[in-house]
């Protein structure tokens, strides 16, 4: 949704009605993740994509119907991968797409949602996309609840349901998870009467690069391309300058371990953050790794040779880190791509980060028989009753 937000807001702000199709669930090799959206404007303009071209035509027609009637619905598109090409679904897989009409009347909270996204403030939009065995006259489909860390707007149709969903969604929002959850009609967490789609708009995840070197400049560039908010930190002011790192959101002159400790204590480093230590100098990297390996982060990597890595591990053990804490460290940093230049090395590091996020092996796809896209939420479904990938 984020990629079409400005277009949608422009029409909404002008008092126009827009048809919106949003991916809420995927299976197998579906090409777009949950949260991807396509708009059909009041003039018939199509914006965005839900499948990379496979089912856009069908979604376009359904969205036009939604504009005309105001009737939302959950549509399923796709067949097995083996049969996909015959019906034009060249990627195979299955998509569940929620189609609705959005305008000022149906979504009065949308302006506040857009303001929060633009300000970098976290907000989640919860929509009831399916309801089984609804009590007579109590159809919740299409009801919407907007959740901020400190307030809510709208309603899913029941105060108890709103309360239960608010508590759970704030946990999802803290990690930027977009997914579906299931509840009973009155908020029962073990119920499955209602399917709710949670679209989280969290601030960009952070990439913090320690060491103001040429490799850091290349990594900052690819980190920004991947959607991270990039910080470059180094204690040497002559090297840590905004001019040398134009792609970084900020360049900080501070000892790395002091900066990271202060950011973590202030709650500005979460479980989505990636921390890349490129200093390969013990007086810098050992103190910052002591902090990095003890705080929540998606990835901690450090540059250096294998000899440097062994020396670093010994120093970390002497500093009191456990074997479990040290095992979190990706070192030497990056995947084996044969990289030589700073740019190639940045690709190697980025590839390792992406593989870790989605459970990839880093092997060539042509040598594998496993699914191309991994559903990482399968690991959490028993615990959280989630049903769609992050």
TrEMBL record:
Residues 207-353 form the XdhC Rossmann domain. InterPro entries: MoCofactor_Util/Proc, XdhC_CoxI, XdhC_Rossmann_dom. Signal peptide: none annotated. Residues 11-78, 117-184 form the XdhC- CoxI domain. It comes from the Bacteria. This is Xanthine and CO dehydrogenases maturation factor, XdhC/CoxF family. It comes from Cryptosporangium arvum DSM 44712.
